[in-house]
Specification:
- This protein has about 280 residues and is of the alpha+beta class.
- Among the domains are: about 55 residues, no CATH class; about 40 residues, no CATH class; about 90 residues, Roll (Chitinase A, domain 3).
- The protein contains eleven helices and six strands.
- The protein has a four-stranded antiparallel sheet. Strands 1-2 form a two-stranded antiparallel sheet.
- Helix 2 crosses helix 4.
- It starts with a helix and ends in a 23-residue tail after the last helix.
- The relative contact order is 0.09.
């Protein structure tokens, strides 16, 4: 009986050891695989997961766990297979990669601190609160491939032809031609410069042209104008965020470079040496 009890106890111990670690025992240092003596930790997996595109992060945990673990095992084995065969190019590339990564680590707190809801609102107010609304234009055009053709159509319009009918029959702009040449409403900065300049100067209700652009020759009819409403905060949130981020990056870079002792002996070199990649093989 005692022997049987010892067997059962041993079996229970083996079963206990085979169970997964309890959640409270798991840390980033928990080893999840060992490849030729090199540990791969749960922390390695967590960082790898964070770098994945969102669609992959949304995969079921069991799929993601296995995929990331397999990838890290394979990468570790491949890394070990390189041995001592790294070239100068390999070493320098790793130095550059590390430098770039740590640069982003240094910038991240500054960027995060700069982009707050209050800062975005202040940037919006500074840009638009007292801005004079621009003008939007409702215009139509007829686009043809020669000035001669444009002048012929202009003569027909001057003689009473309907603009929309001529646009449907003659415009090579298939996007607007079937709609009578109508381009809808647009603001400054939307159209190519010669076209935009002509629209801005055009009297409402009068056909102007031919106006030459890279697309061909245009006859233009501005039918209406209106004051353009300033964009809402949400309309320009991404744009303002990028501007705040850029300013924060520039400020942080200036701060750390101004504080650094910098020497540039390389300025004496001929800049053409940058084209000589064979130096990496010497």
């Amino acid at each position: 009986m005692a022997k049987a009890m010892r067997f059962v106890a041993g079996a229970m111990l083996s079963l206990t050891l085979a169970l997964p670690a309890m959640a409270e025992d798991v840390t980033a240092d928990t080893v999840v695989a060992v490849v030729n003596g090199t540990n791969i930790t749960l922390g390695n997996m967590l960082v790898a997961r964070e770098s994945l595109p969102a669609q992959y992060q949304a995969l079921p945990p069991e799929t993601l766990f296995k995929g990331i673990l397999d990838q890290l095992i394979q990468q570790t084995a491949l890394q070990q297979s390189v041995g001592d065969t790294l070239t100068k190019r390999d070493t320098l590339q790793m130095e550059n990669d590390r430098r770039a990564y740590l640069s982003n680590v240094a910038l991240e707190p500054a960027v995060t601190a700069a982009v707050t809801e209050e800062a975005i609102k202040a940037a919006y107010d500074a840009k638009f609160a007292n801005a004079t609304p621009g003008t939007e234009y409702h215009a139509a055009h007829i686009l043809v491939d020669s000035e001669e053709k444009a002048n012929q159509l202009k003569a027909q319009l001057d003689g009473g032809a309907v603009f929309a009918d001529l646009a449907k029959a003659n415009s090579i702009d298939t996007g607007s031609g079937g709609n009578g040449g109508d381009l809808g409403w647009f603001g400054v900065g939307t159209m190519v410069k010669p076209f935009e300049d002509a629209v801005v100067a055009a009297p409402v209700g009068t056909v102007i042209g031919p106006i030459k652009t890279d697309f061909g020759y245009h006859l233009i009819l501005v039918s209406e104008t209106r004051a353009a409403a300033n964009p809402t905060l949400d309309d320009v949130r991404d744009e303002l965020t990028q501007e705040l981020q850029q300013k924060a990056v520039e400020a942080k870079v200036k701060e750390v470079t101004d504080a650094a002792k910098i020497e540039k002996p390389g300025e004496a070199l001929d800049p053409a040496v940058l084209n000589d990649s064979t130096l990496l093989d010497k």
